[in-house]
Amino acid sequence: MDNSGSSETVQATANRRDIGGALFLGLIAYVLFLSWFSWKYYPIGRTRSVENDFFSWYVPDARRIVQGDFSAIENYRFNPIGYAAVLAFASIPTQDMYAAGKAISVLSAALALSVLYRLLTRVLPLPLAALTVLATAANPYFLQAGYYVGTDMPFMALSCMAMMTILRPNPSRWNTVQAGLATALAYLMRYNGIFLLPIGALAIFLGDRSSNARSRLQRVSIYGLAFFSAVLPWHLFLKIREGAFFYNENRFNMAYDLLHRGENKDYFGQFSEDRYRSLADVVFSDPARFFANAVRNAFDHVSLLSDRFIPEYLGTLALVGLYGTVRGLSGRGAQIPQRRLLALSNACFFLLMTLIHYEDRYFLYLTPLLSFLYVYGAILLFAPLMKYPSAKIPRAAALCGILLYALFQAGAFQLQTAKSFNVEILKLADFLKYLSTPSSVMMSRSSNIAYFSGARYRFLPVLKGPGELRAAAKSKNADFIFHAEIESSARPELEGLIHRPQFIPGIQKIMEWRVPARRSAVYRVLPDGSPAGLMEFNKANFETPEAWEEFSSKWSRSGIKRFVLEGHLHIQKPGAYTLAFSGDRFTVTLDGRKVLSDEGRKASFMQNTLDLTQGFHGLTLEFGKSDGGVEPAGLFWTTPDNRREPIPRTALVFERTIGHP
Fold this sequence. Notes:
This protein is an alpha+beta fold and 661 residues long.
């Protein structure tokens, strides 16, 4: 009796188990690396496009969902509710939205790779599927999306899951329902998940050739019904709230990218959006330009994708893989129809994305295809060696070497990227926590500063100068304004704000980050009629009215540029106190020992934790005054019971003022 077929089946099963086990261990290591990297090197993030979406849209709605106030959801101009709902659920254990966002990305990366492996093993030989998954994991932009906060990696995972259910062989009606629901989940994460709907319908109609056309149409109807049933509640919400069942404003992105490219995007959003009231307005306002720019986008996207997602040293392999792929899709075989549908899904996604500008993160779904090209190219080049048993080890070593080198390059890319993370936001926000309350309003272009300082966020509009800045701050009831040099390209009229040599009436710089290439500043908006200078809000800390008048009169004199305040600090309860101060060229001395100084520091704000004994401690505060410089903000502390506040009158008293030219 011939048992060769049975032996081959057993061997194939064993190989599948071995490869699957190795990939599972690799996946655990991958998740551990992403988790470690995100917490160590991604304390706040880098890209404003990702972070602004997260902090200004998803976090506020997630908080409303946690509070059970679904009717207050309001940030759905461009994306549906899916990510905010997931973020709300993930944040429940810690109440930390940012940490929850990073955890979602890490776990989504693991899910995407797991589902991708199961999907590819249905349409590719096992070794080729496994190598493609490894190459995808080693892609620097896939790795990056695994710790960036935002919808990119969750959308990738859900899209792969939808394709896995769509391409299930010989699906039952329940499997068809699952495919519709999976497609709906991807759509509810991001509207461009709609590209999956025609692919799913086509796959279901063509998948079972043994059934008649009527039966296949019934399954397509089941698929569509499952999809629309899942998304119906969301669209009913939109109908009730906005009066439009399919309401969204992605047409503005299309209008900007296809008709207004080159303009200041913030200017477009503030002054030009309103002319496009529907998608038809976008398409037919200038059809020739619309379609010409869409075609140009297609060529630009291909060029950028090949440049960014395929390493230069693997470009030749990718060309060989592309040639082999095209030839393979034109052939015959049991897996060819599914391969064609998978390729078609990538093509549909790409065509949809030609309607907007290029960003690496937008094209995450294409990463497996682009990785497959150079992996397949390597296998095709090594194919002549297949007949030589002695070449198996060198062939495997070469493939592993390519993947290890790609992974090394991806890791180096992440570390290089981490150097540009705007960690100064944490420093500025740490100072603001002494001043801001949950009711405080922060006006800025970037929303992350408001989140980390505990203030509410208001968008900084396009303005023509300091006068309009003051008016906008009043209209938005802003308490603070944040502006960074990195944002000056979008706010050229305010470019001199950080370095401005004169004070702006009613607006005072209270802290700045002083690295030449990345300067940032926080301003306080003074209420109408309040005196200039934050120190003046702390006049109760002067021992007598005469001591206050002495400081106030010397502060107003133009010839005095440096001040020394002498007094004492009274500690009632001994323990660890954190003293904090922000100012220009300052030094804080306690009991004759220098405890705070901004000399040579990157920031105008410093804090230091000290173990203080009960009783009185001699205190000297020295700081400078300069036009346009940082206003002295007063002394703050964090008490042993973790209370942050300006040091109160009961603990801090200044007795005399010394002025120096």
